[in-house]
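U., I forgot to send this yesterday:
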Amino acid sequence: MTAFQPQHTGLYFSAEHIQQALRRKERPPVKEAWALFDNLPPQDIFSGLILNGTRCRFAGDLEAGRVAATGLQAWDWRSVGTEQAASWDDLVATVILMHAFEMVRDHPAFNDTARHDWLARLAEVVAAMNDNALEDVDYVERIWLGLLNMVAGVVLDGEDAFQRGVETYRRAVREDITPDGYITQAVQGGGDTAFLRQLLVVKALVLMAEVGTLAGEDLWQYTVRGVSVTTAAVYLNYYYYFPDKWRWDDGKVPDVSGLLRQHGGYLEILNSRVHPKDIETILYDLRPFFDVSGGGLTTLTHGAAQRRGWFG
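Result:
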């Protein structure tokens, strides 16, 4: 097992990603991603936290970092339900907060006391979400709980939580992704939201692969009988070109383009690591990505990557 080594730069990017984005600041697609900073006002508190955190990390904007740090310290944790099984919204909110925190955890506005208090409250929330998790929890929420645990392990320097997330990831690859790429537990019973459900699962798994790899556990290489996270991700890409071929949404043709525009930030991460042959048109059409719950401005963080990935 590779050593658990959280970097505390960002959940989904490293110092090398930052350097690459700066070097290619005037080259597409990173140029268009940088331009978003000036043309994308926050739509809510979550997008504001991620945008300001990213400005702080990538542009050295200390004022943006102060705004993000202040917002995180003012967060009312009571808004995240912990008295019962966490909803998908609660899980997503907590993951977003942790990504924002990682980007500003060393900002002067987060003094030692404030940082300690924030992390202590986070630990309580994560523990409650796990304690209240039901055996028959919805599949999408189960995968996102795995992402939450992996992320919490990084943020809290807790290897046990991190490894719980790793096992969720491995189990999904080992047992849930079919050789064709669809995920039965995600699509069956999804009514007219089956495509969205598989998309949210793939999004979480790609994020887990990146978080794990950056923390020392190379999940991108985890393959069982030829099946990996790439199998599920590439399966969805096909339907961007042929949405009418999707057969689960009660006969309804899903808005694949719209859903990927909203939730497709993971595609930049996937492309930086694997570069599937069918992805270029999707990226050309939908870039730049800003996916608040899916890594943030991933065209900035990962759009400059070489095809072979960051580490060979």
